[in-house]
UniProtKB/TrEMBL annotation:
The chain crosses the membrane at residues 17-36, 98-118, 124-144, 172-200, 207-227, 247-265, 277-299, 314-333, 345-365. This is DUF2079 domain-containing protein. InterPro entries: STSV1_Orf64. Keywords: Membrane, Transmembrane, Transmembrane helix. It holds the Pfam family DUF2079.
Amino acid sequence: MTKNSIDHNNLIIKADFWIIVFLFLFFTFLYNLLAITRHNHFQSYGIDFSTYDQPLWLLSKFQEPISTIYNLNTLADRFRPIIFPLSLLYWFTQNERIILVFQSVILSAAIFPLWLIAKKYLPRILAIIITFLYIDFIGIQSAVVYDFHEMALLPFFLAWLFYFLINKKWNYYFIFLILCLSIREHVGLLLSTLGIYIWLVKKNAKIALATTFTSFIYSIIAIKLIMPTFGQTDYSSFTYQGDSLENALLAYISHPSTIISNFFFPIQKSQTLLLSFLSFGLIPILYLALIPTIIFQFLSRFLDQLHPIRWTLYYHYSVELAVLLTISTIFGSKMILKHFEKYKYILLIIIFLLLSIHLSTNIILNAPLKNLLNPQFYKNETWMDNTRKILSIVPDNASVAAQNNLLPHLSHRKEIYLLPKINNADYIVVDLHPGQNNWNFYTEDLEKTRSLFNQLIINRLYEPIASAGNAYLLRKTNFDK
């Protein structure tokens, strides 16, 4: 190879790298705009955002990471030791939006290892296109638009895990395996299935067994020993109401036909299955080595009869799936190119099909990024200004009860409660403007919250001390000033 050709190749690699950097910066900006605008317009919710934010803030102060919404140590609710380094974000700022910014950055940053994998096996333009499919996948968009979850860190770690796995850099591989496991207790169950992939593709039984054993045992220890130590009394994340995890698994083993029926039905599950693969042009189906892991990811959601929201492509339930489908698309595309190498336009056909099917799927699913094209999304309304006025006068260290969409703006304190629970809080904050979504009130609605508000005043338990429009601040009548 001549010096000129080497220089030319280096220029191409640099150009592609800067395209990836542009995609990273562009989508990070879009995702931050989406998340921060929602939060500023009171579309974040206490039942998710505050249950993560309060323990992180407490941990940054070297205090026990308790969510007073659940009255539970966050490590009992979900075993996620990744929160220890994550809490360091609050050493730099007390603004709760920092975790939304971080989430957007780290979700987008997974494109770097994915591109490094893709460019090793595919033509440069196809490598970039498949990387785009990941960052624009509706499962990633949805994770951004529905508050903060520590699972958003998994794609970044998982993508690097695959990079080091594919390149047989085992020391780094196991470092990222540990990082993946630290995100949530059930991640080990998913990663244990990677042993099948490693054995089939790398023919390395030792690494395959080490991966399966380490991952599976970690999850079992976390669920059965560590979480109960922190206060977990009922781990039923994947079961029927009242069932233990063991009983649910035994029931499925005893009646395997229910696995099939619960995997495909209700029809929403089949739609999620199809649309997930369609988002990557159906190419992941061709790469059989990762199918067991992909199927397990769907099984862990579809066999859960308690939480139907996990059956959809929305929320944060498809973030790890995004990486699995991207890796499968890379190697599936490699197989197609090799099989049809005699066809002149096969590369263009693959690119056209991937982009057209992916973008069509996003349109069908009403992808969250479409909100950014709607001028109404950015509109600041009078009730928002009124609510901000009331929130600004709540004392920093006081205990507070508030409705679902206000609590995320009050999370940095030792005691917060989600209405209708009050728990003798010093202050109560409500916004009673008409036309609100019932989810703003969690288990209640506007009228029930208004009734609670009136009863607290009539019974002289709380007194109104400030109002702005339909937003009110109540203080406990026997409050010790």
